[in-house]
Design goal:
The complex is a heteropentamer of chains A (537), B (494), C (674), D (187) and E (101). Chain A is mainly alpha-helical and 537 residues long. Chain A has 20 helices and 4 strands. In chain A, helix 4 packs antiparallel against helix 5 and helix 11 packs antiparallel against helix 14. The longest helix of chain A has 32 residues. Chain C has 674 residues and is mainly alpha-helical. Chain C contains 28 helices and 3 strands. Chain C is globular and about 115 Å long. The N and C termini of chain C lie far apart (81 Å). Chain D is extended. Helices cover 75% and strands 0% of the residues of chain D. With 101 residues, chain E is an all-alpha fold. Chain E has 3 helices and no strands. In chain E, helix 1 packs antiparallel against helix 2 and helix 2 runs antiparallel to helix 3. The radius of gyration of chain E is 17 Å and the shape is elongated. Classes of the chains: A mainly alpha (537), B mainly alpha (494), C mainly alpha (674), D mainly alpha (187), E mainly alpha (101). Chains D and E meet through helix 2, helix 3, helix 4, helix 5 and helix 6 of D and helix 1, helix 2 and helix 3 of E.
Chain lengths: 537, 494, 674, 187, 101
């Protein structure tokens, strides 16, 4: 079946777009048709990606499979090059999978002004952007997909977002939360990506000094390892800085994170889920796929800074969580902390660390995605996210409460569930970072990271106590709340199962990534790098 | 001395000439309620003019006439194509707009065609005189068209302001040209270039080049020669504004680039820093001013000022860095082509929406998406394309711009690149504000206009063409790189 | 599945346990399956899932018993590992995460203790929890606990150990907070979780250091390297050892991390018996024992810390137990104190002594808790001030309670006597005289507070309001079984007569325990015995049935110490006001403030400045031209002016002037001034 | 060329007279408070300029200037002034109050222009004077090499004509127009 | 004669034109100023031509074109002014300073 080899990835990426077009043709009133199309398309996309995974040769997960490399914009040297390796495979699956769940969840959860047609249409466009980013192997293509997610997300937040007015410091007029958040999200990301684009272009022309100019990620990676001096020095430092701006905004890393709490708070449930589960990963994926392998030498220089910012993010995010009253905002800040672990892993520049980052990304996608689902469903029922008004949820809506409890446990990194591996491995990596990095610094970071886990447990359990436990406040007396319905269950159960599965059997992720990461690190930082102080020599 | 005239090479111009005379004559005989036939004729004429263009393009040979003062090469052809397509779109936009108001239709189309003719001539000009005449023919009818809403004080004002500043710029341009002629004794660009190269440093050359640059700066509405633009855009009939912001600006750019690139590349030490400043100020000033606009057309005016700044970036940075101008040249031309399509689309939307909302204020657009989703989508597409968001065409324009900056390298260019990057973000804000009004704001209870107003067929066609182009070019930008490649011909020839 | 050769096994008298050991993993899986099953269908069963839990535990118990016999008879050394993930570790090396189980003396003993106590407690709980809310969930959580505990005990590598470790912590959290409608209970649960989480930093970081340095997570490989004296490992051994011990301190409630344990009594009593007395809290002891060769060798410098912390704990725990009114809290502090004994014993090198006390303590403390539960069940109160004279109404409970108390007090020939004697002997032999005498003194305190409790509860007159009656058989039978254990549990290691336990807990894989030989030590036995007996006697005198209320008496007995003890050495206050509040309060709020007003402030500030700039550029420069430059920003905008006025205001000339000035500036900048 | 040589050339005396006329009348064009006077001063300026052209032996251009400008443009101006009934008398507020900055700007511009042309052409002498350039050559150039601009400029004029009429003509009211339409159809 | 004497006059005339353009309130007068500037250009062109003596008399040809264009511009300008005048008159008959800019 060469069809799958040649077209599999392309169809996986663009099928949602076709779905979006189809939905666009459906009259607005026919909600059922729009939903059905979205469901069928997203399921098909997921199945296709699953087929790809099934046919994926894990024995050579460090090589790009199902590659397509064809002309696209010849005159500027950009090509349509997509491929799947062990690093992108889990991300692609995560992306296609979460979209399915989001469609299912959306079946009967609509924020005002409803309009399922528009919502699902945007969501499918978003899916194309996300899938595309994870498989793109050309910098320009990557950039396009990376940016493609902006528009739909802007509208998802802006149209279906939170409509409570909010006073923005520095501005005279009140603005609805959704409006502020949407434009903030958009401007932040665009700001970063403008510089990222400059970086990409610069790489392209620099690559001309050692052969043909190219935007091709594998080719550039190859170039970086064969010509170590090419992307180095001041030049490399600047270019890495440009890429850093682009990716770090998306991750988001402290102090570029402030769009995130606003965006999450304002976004509709599904928007939050997609944002947390996948969009944030685009940034960290960019680091792994592009910044590290192509710019290994500058990565050295930057790694301590990234590590420090990551740990600041962990501690800072946790502390900020403790001051929140809004449940979604709390979860949003928790993302800052969790992504801090991901970035700490990346900053170590070691195999362990990068594996940690990937599994951390997957886990965060599953767990925080689920958390936002839950928060959304609760807000749906209580019409408030204010934790001081919630409480006793476990009593009022027991199954939902139970799932919330489970997810909180997963989120605080309980061993045996998915969240643990990322945190643990990232600490493991930072104990002995790449040889040339300051071991002392990273060990200090490790300790702070570990303290961060306690704080994480702190705010998570605190949230659980405030929301789930205790007697329900009198406000809710006499209210009947329906417990988890079947759409919610259908959307959440797979996540729960996966959280446990990855927790019990991390091979699900690491099995794909490990070899790919090893090759990546070997190429970028030389074989035999890292961890010398072993076995007493 | 006798000169051969290649009629095929001149065929597009001749077709337009025939059309505009036809329009003038037809207008005499048509009863008032059937004046729209002049529009039909104009549309047909512009379409027909594209036929020889295609033939010439297929032929591909460079045809040079009159001692090289009039050249039809691929560069001229693609630009003529651009002018024709843009003119075509403006004509489509005009039909219902002009019909609906009390306009002199025949004269309107005649003047528009004259302007198109001027731009066609200009694209082929390789000689100061031809260039000047072409440019004047492009601009002069627009002075009149801007005032075509005769009863409207704003339109009057638009016309007068545009006219006075226009003639001022013409005078400065001419003075510069006269100096250049005095210094070189030539008007044909290639000859001029040889002389200029021999001339070396000369303040008079600098003054000459800069005065010409000022003249072109007016046409492209670059800061600080932009002042006319907002008022004129606001006052002029909207299709004319569209034409002003696209064809006229493009013509100005083409003139500027041909002269700088073909005639005085060796005086780059004079014009490069000036262009750098103009680019930086245009972007920043235009964008910052756009932030404050409430009127959609004024906003587009300032946006087009900023866009002009972006368009100058490649050339400015390449010249400042002393790099090869060819890449920069093709980048600017590509930008110009993409800008033309998306900006015309934006204006088409503005025209269509104005019917529905009955106001030019951005606030009036609130909730457009709820009662007219198609227009909402189109507005979103065009404005985000202008902002440079993939996968809409605008991204590629921004991309080639940044690309050429990076090719140039050097500190001054990096500074310009950073200014451009920051400006991209600022620009997004006000473009997004429009889409915010369209989608995120609730529709007011009652509108001044007729929400159920149907968008006329010709306008739909214009919208459709520009939308398709915006999207297709965004996804397969290779299409527009033909502009870039063609413009390299200009460099190769010289 | 792969069976790894045990390089360092001393195979002289040990078999591989055959199929029994090979499939020991069944014990790990069954409770989890039970957990799932109870969650899914428990509610629909007649006993709401208890039967599943008991069934699962019975299977485990039988299996554990079989293993135990096999080990006792022929010895077992077996290890199974399943790889669950493998990843690059730098330098081309790969490291694996694994699940698995280790079957040797140590784990077999623990299996037996855990499953036995768990089984009895499960059965007991059927009676105890009758009519309570969320019974299904209760049993599910118990199964989760049992599974995690088995996972922990069976862990052949540090990762699995951590998984089990935090798993039992989670179960503990769930069960302490079982009555979460009351905020105090959920807070107690959170406290337990936090304190353990803090301690877990130590365990996790210790694991990270050991694993990265040794290049493996497998405990036996790490220990092998330690035995070999690998230099890299040696360099980090003490730090890693201390960190891991810090982890153990949390779980085993060592000072100053013991604070969670008394609060944990908020959970139902069976939970306290099972987790907070017999099994979970001994995980720390187990961990130290598991890593004993490491602490014996490379990390020997960490051992004085273990001894010291253990000693402090055993003393302060006992003292706190003196002043409690809540019967469960007495037992909780007693547990703290007894754990202190075990840890101190290990710290002093008494491998067998520590584990032996773990073994006996499991029986008698579980017994005491369950019996106390039976009392509480009867009087609906935890407070001894509302009890008294229950001897008659709860005869079976009373007698079993007496057995447990005697064992705890260390009265021969009950279990506690033998193990405590073993520990005191260890101290004596190790030459830590001060610790030895503190141990003896604490033995006195132990006996004293135990019988204070007995007397206040069962003697005198009834002070409560309920109508106490004996608990049902389902509760008393487990008591009796445990009572047998409390009596006979000590006979497995009688110095000079029978030293079976000594061999049962040999970890043959790595080393032959050559701990400080306790043996028969009269010098230790006599003071210990005297202390215990005199403690009982003293209690009898002080709390004789006709004495006044016990609170007044306490104040008389230890005047200076009383407030300190009542406030639990102010530790909770220090933690709360010194750590938790500052973090939750000012620090968190501060960060939030920084986020909102500094970082976001910068962001919004950039926005506001851009807007202001645009106001200037557009309002002043663009619309006012040269006048704007000269006069600066003017508030007037053009919106008020009509087109006519604009024409007459000379704006066109302004524009033209801007035009010409712009040209001039360009010329000046580029041509004239270059 | 020294000053004495320059003075010695009688053409330069002619030049001086003409230059004085050009500049004085030019100055009055921009300062005269009376619009009709200003227009007439422009006539003088143009006439003197035509003298320059003759001096530079550009007879054809000189006559074109006279014919086109003085003959047509100025008349157009005067018509314009009359039709718009602009005040033909002395207008007190004919200028904006900011004469000084404007003068400075103009002065600066003059400085730049004069300086730059001086550096480039300071010592260039005009030699071929008095021979009279051939109008024939000019004609051939216009219809030869400059055929295209020549033709194109006619469209510029046409456009100006058509557009100018359109803008300047008095619009009929809708009622009038309908009436006209009616008349036409009846005819 | 030297070239510069003409150039100087032209520059001065051009500057007069600019001055007039900047200060005149009356639209017709602004137009007159523009004519001055264009005339200055013509002086330049013709003077240059007399020095350069190009074969095709380019300078003079250019000047002719400039004159033509200037004429067209004047026509356009006056038409615009006339249009505005008509509108103003209909709006406000008494306003005699109509064409002030």
């Amino acid at each position: 079946m060469d069809l799958i080899n040649d077209w599999g990835l392309t169809v996986t990426v663009f099928l949602p777009l076709v779905g979006a077009l189809l939905i666009g043709l459906v009259p607005k009133a026919n909600e059922m048709a729009a939903k059905s199309i979205a469901l069928v398309i997203s399921v098909l996309t997921f199945l296709l990606s699953a087929v790809l995974a099934a046919r994926f040769d894990f024995g050579r997960s460090d090589q790009y499979q199902f590659s397509v490399d064809t002309t696209w914009i010849e005159s500027i040297g950009a090509r349509y090059h997509v491929g799947l390796d062990g690093i992108s495979l889990p991300m692609l699956l995560l992306s296609t999978f979460i979209v399915v769940l989001c469609v299912i969840y959306s079946w009967n959860h609509w924020e005002e002004p409803r309009n399922p047609k528009g919502f699902l249409l945007l969501m499918l466009i978003l899916a194309t952007g996300m899938n595309g980013t994870f498989v793109a192997l050309d910098l320009v293509l990557f950039f396009i997909f990376f940016e493609l997610v902006l528009l739909p997300m802007y509208f998802l937040i802006g149209i279906w977002g939170d409509k409570t007015p909010r006073r923005i410091p520095g501005f005279a007029r009140e603005s609805e939360t959704r409006l502020y958040a949407a434009i903030k999200f958009f401007l932040f990301t665009l700001f970063g990506s403008a510089f990222m684009l400059l970086g990409f272009l610069s790489l392209y022309f620099k690559s001309g000094e050692a052969g043909a100019k190219t935007f091709d990620i594998p080719a550039l990676t190859e170039l970086a390892s064969t010509n170590p001096g090419l992307f180095a020095g001041r030049y490399g430092w600047l270019v890495f800085g440009a890429l850093f701006l682009g990716f770090a905004v998306k991750v988001p890393m402290w102090p570029l994170h402030t769009w995130l709490p606003d965006a999450h708070t304002a976004a509709p449930t599904v928007g939050s889920v997609l944002l947390a589960a996948i969009l944030l990963k685009l940034g960290s994926y960019g680091f792994i796929r592009i910044a590290l392998p192509i710019l290994p030498e500058p990565a050295h220089t930057w790694a301590p800074a990234i590590g420090v910012l990551a740990v600041i993010g962990i501690i800072y995010g946790s502390l900020a969580c403790l001051a929140q009253t809004d449940m979604k905002r709390l979860i949003a800040f928790s993302s800052v902390g969790h992504m801090g672990f991901v970035m700490l892993g990346i900053a170590t520049l070691t195999e362990v660390g990068i594996n940690a980052a990937i599994i951390g990304m997957v886990a965060h996608g599953l767990i925080t995605g689920l958390l936002f689902f839950l928060a959304g469903s609760m807000a749906h029922r209580y019409h408030t996210r204010d934790m001081s008004r919630l409480g006793g949820n476990q009593k009022l809506i027991p199954i939902l409460g139970g799932i919330l409890g489970f997810t909180v446990m997963a989120s605080l990194g309980l061993p045996g569930l998915a969240g643990f591996w990322g945190e643990f491995m990232s600490l493991l990596g930072s104990y002995n970072p790449l040889e040339s990095l300051s071991t002392d610094l990273f060990r200090v970071l490790m300790v702070f990271g570990a303290i961060g886990t306690v704080l994480t447990a702190g705010y998570m359990l605190w949230m659980l106590q405030r929301v789930n436990l205790g007697e329900p406040s009198e406000e809710w007396l006499g209210h009947e709340f329906h417990d988890v319905d079947r759409y919610e269950l259908a959307a959440w159960l797979p996540l729960i199962i996966l959280i446990v599965a990855v927790g019990v059997y991390p091979h699900l992720v690491l099995g794909a990534t490990s070899d790919a990461v090893t090759t990546l690190v070997d190429n970028a930082f030389g074989p035999g790098s890292a961890v010398q102080a072993v076995l007493g020599g | 001395m006798s000169y051969q005239i290649d009629y095929l090479a001149l065929a597009p111009e001749l077709v337009i000439i025939a059309t505009l005379i036809g329009v003038l004559i037809l207008d005499l005989f048509l009863p008032r309620n059937q004046k729209y036939w002049t529009a039909v004729l104009s549309v047909i004429g512009v379409s027909l003019a594209a036929v020889p263009l295609v033939l010439l393009a297929v032929d591909g040979t460079t045809r040079s006439m009159f001692d090289g003062s009039y050249v039809v090469d691929t560069f001229a052809l693609v630009l003529k194509g651009l002018f024709l397509v843009a003119g075509y779109l403006v004509l489509l936009m005009s039909v219902s707009y002009i019909e609906s108001d009390r306009y002199y239709q025949g004269e309107y189309y005649f003047l528009l065609l004259s302007s198109i003719l001027g731009s066609l001539v200009m694209a082929s000009s390789r000689d100061l005189i031809v260039l000047f005449i072409g440019l004047e023919l492009t601009t002069a009818p627009l002075f009149l068209l801007a005032g075509f809403r005769k009863g409207d004080a704003k339109s009057n004002e638009a016309s007068l302001k545009y006219y006075i500043l226009g003639v001022l710029s013409t005078a400065l341009l001419l003075f510069g040209m006269s100096l250049l002629f005095g210094l070189t004794g030539e008007v044909q660009f290639d000859a001029v270039r040889e002389k200029v190269a021999a001339l070396g440093d000369s303040p008079a050359l600098g003054v000459a080049v800069l005065l010409m640059l000022v003249g072109f700066g007016f046409k492209v509405s670059s800061v600080p020669f932009h002042f006319w633009a907002p008022d004129t855009y606001e006052g002029a009939p909207t299709p004319v504004t569209a034409y002003l912001s696209v064809n006229s600006k493009a013509a100005g750019f083409v003139a500027m680039l041909i002269v700088l690139y073909r005639a005085v590349p060796d005086a780059a030490n004079y014009w490069a820093p000036a262009l750098w400043l103009m680019a930086a100020f245009s972007m920043t000033w235009g964008n910052l001013s756009a932030l404050r606009q409430r009127n959609i057309v004024r906003l587009l005016a300032y946006s087009s000022i900023a866009q002009a700044g972006f368009m100058m970036v490649p050339f400015a940075s390449a010249a400042v860095a002393g790099a090869d101008l060819t890449e920069a040249f093709s980048a600017t031309v590509i930008y110009l082509a993409i800008y033309a399509v998306m900006n015309l689309g934006a204006f088409a939307v503005v025209i269509a929406v104005a019917r529905k909302t009955g106001t030019g204020e951005i606030d009036g657009w609130a909730g457009l998406g709820s009662y007219s989703p198609r227009l909402g989508v189109l507005a979103t597409a065009f404005f985000f394309s202008l902002a440079g968001i993939p996968p809409l065409a605008g991204w590629f324009a921004k991309f080639v711009m940044f690309r050429s900056v990076i090719i140039a390298g050097g500190v001054a260019t990096v500074v310009l690149a950073v200014i451009a990057a920051v400006n991209t973000v600022i620009a997004l804000y006000y473009y997004a504000r429009i889409t915010k009004a369209v989608w995120l704001d609730p529709a007011p209870a009652e509108a001044a206009g007729d929400r159920d107003a149907r968008t006329s067929g010709s306008l739909r066609l214009a919208l459709g063409i520009s939308a398709v182009l915006t999207l297709v070019v965004g996804i397969f930008p290779a299409i527009v790189t033909v502009f870039g490649d063609a413009s390299k011909v200009l460099g190769a020839a010289g | 599945m792969s069976t790894f050769p045990l390089t360092y096994a001393l195979q002289e008298h040990a078999g591989d346990g055959g199929a029994l050991a090979q499939y020991a993993g069944v014990m790990l899986v069954v409770p989890f399956l039970a957990f799932l099953l109870i969650i899914l269908i428990g509610k629909r069963l007649p006993r709401q899932g208890a039967e599943i839990a008991i069934g699962a535990m019975a299977i485990d118990f039988v299996y554990a018993l079989a293993l135990f016999f096999r080990n006792a008879t022929e010895g077992i050394v077996h290890e199974e590992q399943f790889e669950i993930a493998r990843f690059g570790f730098g330098g081309g090396r790969q490291v694996a995460f694994e699940w698995g189980w280790v079957v040797d003396g140590l784990s077999t003993m623990m299996f037996l203790v855990v499953t036995l106590v768990a089984l009895l407690v499960f059965i007991y709980a059927v009676g105890y929890m009758k009519g309570e809310i969320r019974v299904t969930f209760f049993f599910a959580a118990l199964c989760l606990f049992a599974g995690s505990m088995m996972l922990l005990v069976a862990a052949p590598n540090l990762v699995q150990l951590i998984v089990g470790w935090e798993g039992v912590g989670l179960a503990s959290y769930l069960l302490i907070g079982h009555y979460w409608e009351d905020r105090a209970n959920s807070s107690a649960a959170m406290k337990a979780f936090y304190v353990n989480k803090v301690a877990d930093i130590g365990l996790i970081l210790g694991t990270v250091i050991l694993a990265v340095t040794a290049g493996t997570f497998r405990i036996n490989e790490i220990l092998a390297q330690a035995e070999e004296g690998a230099a890299a490992l040696g360099a980090v051994a003490v730090v890693a050892g201390l960190l891991i011990f810090f982890g153990a301190m949390g779980k085993s409630a060592q000072f100053p991390l013991h604070v969670w344990l008394p609060d944990a009594m908020a959970g139902p009593t069976p939970v306290s018996a099972l987790m907070h007395a017999a099994t979970m809290v001994t995980a720390g002891v187990y961990l130290i024992a598991r890593m004993f060769p490491f602490y014996e060798g490379m990390a020997a410098d960490a051992r004085p810390w273990i001894l010291g912390i253990g000693t402090v704990t055993l003393v302060i725990g006992a003292m706190l137990a003196l002043v409690q009114d809540d019967i469960k809290r007495v037992l909780a502090y007693s547990t703290v104190s007894q754990l202190g004994y075990m840890v101190a014993a290990l710290g002093a090198g008494g491998y067998v002594a520590g584990l032996f006390h773990l073994w006996t303590h499991a029986f008698f403390k579980a017994l005491l808790f369950l019996a106390a539960g039976s009392v509480i069940h009867a009087v609906h109160s935890n407070n001894m001030s509302e009890m008294g004279g229950l001897r008659t109404s709860l005869p079976r409970t009373y007698w079993t309670f007496i057995v447990g108390s005697l064992a705890l007090a260390g009265i021969p020939p009950l279990a506690g006597f033998w193990s405590k004697d073993e520990i005191l002997a260890t101290f004596d032999h190790a030459g830590v005289t001060a610790v030895f005498w503190l141990g003896v003194a604490t033995a006195f305190l132990t006996a004293f507070y135990t019988f204070r409790m007995v007397l206040l509860t069962f003697h005198g007159s009834y002070k409560g309001h309920a109508h106490p009656h004996e608990s049902p058989r389902v509760m008393t039978v487990p008591l009796m079984i445990l009572a047998v254990g409390a009596i006979a549990g000590g006979f497995v290691l009688i110095p000079g007569i029978f030293s079976g336990f000594h061999h049962w807990v040999e970890v043959r894989q790595v080393f032959n325990p050559e701990e400080v030989e306790a043996g028969f030590d009269l010098a230790a036995l006599i003071p210990g015995l005297i202390a215990a007996v005199s403690g009982v006697v003293a209690a009898w005198f002080v709390y004789s049935p006709d004495a006044e209320t016990q609170e007044a008496r306490d104040r008389v007995s230890i005047p200076g110490l009383y407030p300190l003890l009542r406030h639990k050495y102010y530790l909770d206050d220090i933690y709360w006001y010194g750590i938790v509040q500052p973090i939750k309060g000012p620090l968190a709020r501060g960060v939030n403030w920084v986020n909102q007003y500094v970082i976001d402030g910068v962001v919004n500030g950039v926005g506001a400045v851009t807007m202001a700039l645009s106001r200037f550029v557009y309002g002043a420069l663009d619309q006012k031209g040269i006048d704007g430059v000269v006069h600066g920003v003017s508030a007037a905008t053009d919106s008020a002016g009509t087109a006519l006025r604009r024409l007459q205001s000379g704006r066109v000339q302004q524009y033209a002037a801007g035009f010409v000035v712009g040209a001039l500036v360009l010329v000046l900048a580029v041509v004239v001034l270059r | 060329m020294s000053l004495s040589q320059w003075i010695g050339d009688p053409l330069n005396w002619v030049f001086l007279v003409l230059a004085l006329a050009v500049l004085l009348s030019g100055f009055r064009v921009v300062t005269s408070p009376n619009v009709v006077h200003a227009a007439l001063f422009l006539v003088a300026t143009l006439a003197a300029t035509a003298g320059f052209f003759l001096l530079l032996s550009a007879e054809f251009v000189a006559w074109v200037l006279v014919l086109v400008y003085i003959g047509a443009v100025i008349v157009l101006f005067l018509f314009g002034i009359m039709i718009t009934r602009a005040p033909t008398g002395r207008d007190t507020a004919v200028d904006h109050p900011r004469r000084l900055p404007s003068a400075l700007i103009a002065l600066a511009l003059f400085g730049v222009l004069a300086w730059s042309t001086w550096t480039a052409f300071g010592d260039t002498a005009i030699e071929a004077v008095g021979e009279g350039s051939s109008t024939e050559v000019l004609g051939e150039a216009l219809l030869g090499r400059f055929l295209i601009p020549f033709e194109v400029v006619s469209f510029l004029l046409l456009a100006a004509l058509v557009g100018g009429i359109t803008l300047a003509r008095k619009d009929q009211s809708p009622a009038e127009e309908e009436a006209a339409e009616l008349v036409r159809s009846e005819r | 004669m030297i070239l510069f004497q003409f150039l100087l006059v032209a520059a001065l005339l051009f500057s007069f034109g600019v001055y007039g353009l900047l200060v005149r309130r009356n639209a017709v007068m602004v137009l007159l100023s523009v004519e001055l500037m264009l005339n200055a250009v013509n002086i330049n062109l013709v003077a240059f031509e007399s020095v350069l003596a190009t074969s095709a008399l380019i300078g003079q040809v250019f000047a002719v074109f400039v004159i033509t264009v200037a004429a067209a511009e004047v026509g356009i300008g006056l038409a615009i002014i006339l249009m505005i005048f008509r509108n103003r008159r209909s709006a406000n008959v008494d306003d005699f300073n109509l064409m002030r800019l």
